TrEMBL record:
Pfam family, one: DUF6049
Keywords: Membrane, Transmembrane, Transmembrane helix
Chain ranges passing through the membrane: 737-755
Protein name, per record: Secreted protein
Provenance organism: Brevibacterium ammoniilyticum
InterPro entries, per database record: DUF6049
Regions of compositional bias (Polar residues) in chain numbering: 557-566
Biased segments, Basic and acidic residues type: 338-347
C-alpha cells in the first residue's frame, strides 16, 4: 500500500507539472505570435520608414521573417532570374504561384525583396536561403502594378524605364489554379552603389513573397549579382564534360537504335555535343561510346544488311534489358526494302554524327575513361581486380581514334580515394587522379588552383598528381542540371562563383568544374554558358590547368560518406564472371567471349549506378543474361537406345549452338554401370546458330539397362553445365539366335510330317473295287473277244 500511494502521488505531481509547462508554452506562443502578425500586416509602412534612413534610391526595407507559413498549400516557382546585371541592366524575376488549397487568395500582395547587405561569402548565401528577414522591398504589386504605373504615367511625362510588377492574379487567385507573374526593376532603381565598384559589387539575395490578410503564404528565394564593372583578375574555370551512355546491355555495347535516339534532337549525345561549342570544355570519353559507334557504322558484308559478326556470343534479349543491347540483326531475309533502307539511313546518320564528333574532339582536351566509366575504387579488390584491369586496358579504344587523348588520368568518384586507392590507380598506369577539395582542402582557407600533389605512402616518398574539383560549384551545377525549374539554382551557382571571386579579388586562381557523370541533358549547355558568361569568370582549357604549377594542399582527408558499388553487387558480379569465363572456353575465340562478358559486367559498375542508379537491378539483369547465355549451348534430349553385346558401334548425339559464336567441343559419355563402354569423341566445331550430329563410339559388354550421362567438354578440359541423360539397353545377339530357332522349328515340323507319312503307309483299296478292276483288266486283254 505505501508503494501504491507513492506512485499515485508521483503521477499527480507529474500531471500538474505537465499542465503548468503546457500553459506556459501556450502563453509564450501568444506573446511571440502577436508581434510577428503585426510585423507582417504593417510591413509596407515599416519599409517606407526604414527606406528614408538606409535606402537613398527610394526602395523600402522590411523586417518580416522568412516568409511562407509551412503547410499553407501555396507555392512559388521561379522560372527566370537575371543572374547578374550591371548599372545599365534590368533585373527580371518571373515565376508561377500555385494555389493548391480549396480557398481563393483574395487581394493578394506580391512583393520582391533584396538583401540589405552584399552576400560576399558562401556562408552568407546559405544563411539567406534559410532567413530572408533582413531585406528591403524593391517591387510591390500594389505600388508597381498596372494600375499604379498608369496613374504615375498620367502625372509624369518621364519615359525612363520604371519598376513593373505584372500578375495574372492581380485581384484573386482561385483555388486549385496557378498564376504567372513578372517583375522587372531597372538597375538605377535598385538603390545599389556605382561609385565604388570594387567594394559594392557582389551577390544579393532575392525574395519573392505572396501574402494575403492572414500573412505570408509562400516565398521564392533566388540571387542576383551586382556588377558595376569592377576591375580585378578573373577566376579561371575548366569545365570537364563526361561523354558516356550508362545503362546495362547484354554485350556491353549500345545498339544502333539506342545510339540513334541519343543523337536525336533532345538526345543525350546531342546535349553533350552542344556543350562542346565552347572550345575550352574538356571531354572525359567513355570507350564504350567509341566501340558502340564503330560497330554500328561498320559497313555490312556484301549482300547482307546485318552488321559484321563480332565473334562474341550473344544470347537472346532478357526481360528488362536496356534497349539497343542487341540491334535487330537477325531476320534480314524477311526485311522489306523499306526496312532495309531505314536501317541503312540510320547507319549513315550515326556515321555522320560520329565523324563530326571526332573532328570536334581532336581540338579539345580528351581524357579517356575506363570502359563503362566504372567506379574504379570498387574494382581494386582481389575478386574483380582483373575486371578493373580490363576496363583500364580498353582506354586504348579512345587513343586509337584520338591519338592525343590522355589515358593516364583516373577519375574516381569525388571524395572516395584513400591512399590505398591512389596506389592501386598508380599501379594501373595512372599518373594523375581527380579528387575534390573536401578530401584535399587548401591550406590557406580560400580557393587555390586546382592542381596539386598528394602522398600515396605515409612516408611521402611516393606521390601522385591530383586535379582538384571545386565541390561547391560541382554540387550546385548538379542541382541546376537536375532541377525542373533551374532558375533559382542557377542564380545561386552564379552568386557562389561571385562569392569565390570576392575571397581574393586581386588574386587569380584556376578551378576545375566537372559536370555530372550521367547522361547529358539540356541543362548542361545552359549551366556552362551562363557561368562562363559571368564577367568575373574566364573559361579556360584543362590543358592549361594541367600545365600549371602544383599548389600545396592539406593532407588527404578520409571520406566519411564513401560512395561505392554495394559489396553484394560486386560479389554477384564476381560469381558471374567466374562461372561464365569457364563456360566461354567452349568457344573457338574465348578471348572475344570474355571481352564481351567483361564489357557487360562493367556496365553494372558505372559511376552512374553509384550516384543514384539501382545496381541491384543491374545485377539481376546480368545474372539473367548469363543464365540465358550458358543455356544457349546444349544437347538435344534423345530416346533410349538398344545395343547388342559385343558390338562396337556409335550413338548419335545432337549439339545445339544457339549463340552467335563458333563452339569447339568434345562429347564424353559416362555410363553408370560397366556393362557399357564409351569413348570421348574427337573435337568438333559447331557453327553459330546451328545444330550438329556427333557419333559417340560405344561397345555393349553384357545385358543391362545402362543409364548414361553425356557431357560437353571444352578443349581446356572444362565440363559445361548443360549435360544430357540417355538410357542404353544392352542385349545379347538375339537376331542370329532367333533365326536359328526358327530354322530348327521348321526342320522339326518337316521331319515329323515325313515320319508320320511313312508310318501310316499307303491307303488300301476296297475288295469289291479291286475285283472289278481285275475283271476289267481281263476283258481288256488282247486276243480275247466275246
Amino acid at each position: 500500500m505505501p508503494v501504491f500511494d507513492t506512485m499515485t502521488d508521483f503521477t499527480i505531481r507529474a500531471r500538474v507539472l505537465f499542465a503548468l509547462l503546457s500553459t506556459t508554452l501556450l502563453l509564450a506562443g501568444s506573446i511571440f505570435a502577436v508581434p510577428l502578425a503585426a510585423s507582417a500586416a504593417s510591413e509596407a509602412s515599416e519599409a517606407s520608414a526604414a527606406g528614408s534612413q538606409k535606402n537613398p534610391g527610394g526602395a523600402a526595407e522590411g523586417g518580416d521573417s522568412d516568409g511562407a507559413k509551412s503547410g499553407t498549400g501555396v507555392s512559388i516557382t521561379l522560372d527566370e532570374i537575371t543572374p547578374w546585371l550591371d548599372d545599365k541592366g534590368t533585373l527580371t524575376v518571373r515565376g508561377l504561384v500555385t494555389n493548391s488549397t480549396d480557398k481563393a487568395i483574395v487581394d493578394p500582395k506580391l512583393r520582391l525583396g533584396m538583401s540589405l547587405r552584399n552576400l560576399d561569402a558562401e556562408y552568407r548565401i546559405n544563411a539567406w536561403k534559410s532567413d530572408q528577414s533582413r531585406h528591403r522591398v524593391i517591387a510591390d504589386l500594389d505600388d508597381n502594378g498596372p494600375a499604379a504605373r498608369k496613374q504615375a504615367a498620367e502625372k509624369s511625362n518621364d519615359d525612363d524605364p520604371v519598376t513593373a510588377v505584372d500578375a495574372t492574379f492581380e485581384k484573386e487567385l482561385k483555388p486549385g489554379s496557378s498564376g504567372e507573374f513578372t517583375i522587372t526593376v531597372p538597375a538605377d532603381r535598385l538603390g545599389l552603389s556605382k561609385s565604388s565598384p570594387n567594394s559594392s559589387w557582389g551577390p544579393r539575395g532575392l525574395s519573392v513573397q505572396i501574402s494575403d490578410t492572414s500573412g505570408a503564404l509562400a516565398t521564392g528565394v533566388g540571387f542576383t549579382t551586382w556588377y558595376p564593372n569592377p576591375k580585378f583578375d578573373r577566376t579561371a574555370v575548366s569545365f570537364l564534360a563526361p561523354v558516356t551512355l550508362p545503362g546495362y546491355t547484354a554485350d556491353g555495347l549500345i545498339g544502333p537504335e539506342a545510339l540513334d535516339a541519343a543523337i536525336a534532337e533532345n538526345g543525350s549525345l546531342t546535349n553533350a555535343a552542344r556543350v562542346l561549342t565552347d572550345p575550352k570544355v574538356a571531354i572525359a570519353l567513355d570507350p564504350r561510346v567509341i566501340a558502340s559507334f564503330e560497330a554500328a557504322v561498320a559497313e555490312p558484308p556484301s549482300g547482307e544488311g546485318a552488321p559484321p559478326e563480332t565473334g562474341a556470343p550473344s544470347p537472346p534479349s532478357t526481360p528488362g534489358q536496356t534497349a539497343g543491347a542487341e540491334d535487330a540483326g537477325a531476320g534480314d531475309d524477311a526485311e522489306s526494302p523499306e526496312e532495309q533502307k531505314a536501317r541503312e539511313d540510320r547507319r549513315k546518320r550515326l556515321d555522320t554524327w560520329y565523324r563530326d564528333f571526332l573532328e570536334t574532339a581532336k581540338t579539345r582536351t580528351v581524357i579517356a575513361l575506363p570502359f563503362g566509366d566504372p567506379d574504379q575504387n570498387s574494382l581494386t579488390g582481389e575478386d574483380l581486380d582483373a575486371l578493373g584491369a580490363f576496363a583500364q586496358k580498353e582506354k586504348a579504344l579512345v587513343a586509337e581514334v584520338l591519338p592525343d587523348a590522355r589515358t593516364d588520368i583516373a577519375w574516381p568518384i569525388a571524395g572516395t580515394a584513400d591512399r590505398a586507392d591512389l596506389r592501386a590507380l598508380q599501379k594501373a598506369g595512372n599518373s594523375t587522379a581527380i579528387l575534390d577539395d573536401v578530401q584535399q582542402p587548401p591550406t590557406s582557407g580560400i580557393r587555390e588552383d586546382g592542381r596539386s600533389m598528394t602522398r600515396t605512402t605515409s612516408d611521402g616518398e611516393t606521390t601522385i598528381e591530383t586535379l582538384i574539383s571545386d565541390s561547391a560549384l560541382t554540387d550546385l551545377s548538379a542541382d541546376v542540371i537536375g532541377s525542373k525549374s533551374p532558375a533559382a539554382a542557377m542564380s545561386e551557382l552564379v552568386a557562389t562563383s561571385a562569392a569565390i571571386q570576392s575571397e581574393a579579388p586581386n588574386r587569380s586562381r584556376h578551378l576545375l568544374l566537372p559536370l555530372p557523370r550521367t547522361t547529358a541533358s539540356a541543362g548542361w549547355q545552359a549551366t556552362t554558358s551562363t557561368l562562363a558568361g559571368a564577367p568575373w569568370i574566364e573559361s579556360s582549357g584543362l590543358d592549361t590547368l594541367l600545365g600549371s604549377d602544383p599548389e600545396p594542399r592539406g593532407l588527404l582527408q578520409k571520406s566519411t560518406d564513401q560512395q561505392r558499388i554495394p559489396t553484394s553487387t560486386l560479389q554477384g558480379l564476381s560469381e558471374i564472371r567466374t562461372k561464365e569465363a569457364r563456360f566461354n572456353s567452349a568457344f573457338s575465340d574465348p578471348e572475344a567471349a570474355n571481352a564481351r562478358l567483361d564489357r557487360s559486367l562493367l556496365t553494372c559498375t558505372s559511376v552512374a549506378w553509384t550516384l543514384g542508379g539501382d545496381s541491384a537491378t543491374c545485377l539481376d539483369k546480368a545474372e539473367s543474361t548469363s543464365r540465358a547465355q550458358m543455356d544457349s549451348l546444349y544437347l538435344e534430349k534423345g530416346s533410349s537406345v538398344l545395343l547388342v553385346t559385343g558390338e562396337k558401334t556409335t550413338i548419335p548425339v545432337t549439339i545445339v549452338n544457339d549463340t552467335t559464336a563458333e563452339a569447339t567441343l568434345k562429347l564424353r559419355m559416362k555410363p553408370q554401370t560397366p556393362q557399357l563402354r564409351a569413348q570421348t569423341t574427337e573435337t568438333v566445331v559447331v557453327p553459330p546458330a546451328e545444330t550438329m550430329r556427333v557419333d559417340v563410339p560405344v561397345e555393349g559388354l553384357a545385358n543391362a539397362d545402362v543409364p548414361t550421362t553425356i557431357e560437353m567438354v571444352t578443349a581446356d578440359g572444362v565440363t559445361l553445365p548443360k549435360d544430357a541423360s540417355l538410357l542404353v539397353r544392352v542385349r545379347a545377339d538375339w537376331e542370329n539366335i532367333g533365326t536359328a530357332v526358327v530354322g530348327l522349328a521348321l526342320a522339326a515340323v518337316f521331319v515329323i510330317g515325313l515320319v508320320k507319312s511313312v508310318s501310316r503307309g499307303r491307303r488300301k483299296i476296297p475288295e469289291q473295287q479291286l475285283a472289278a478292276a481285275v475283271a476289267r483288266a481281263k476283258n481288256d486283254e488282247p486276243g480275247k473277244k466275246d
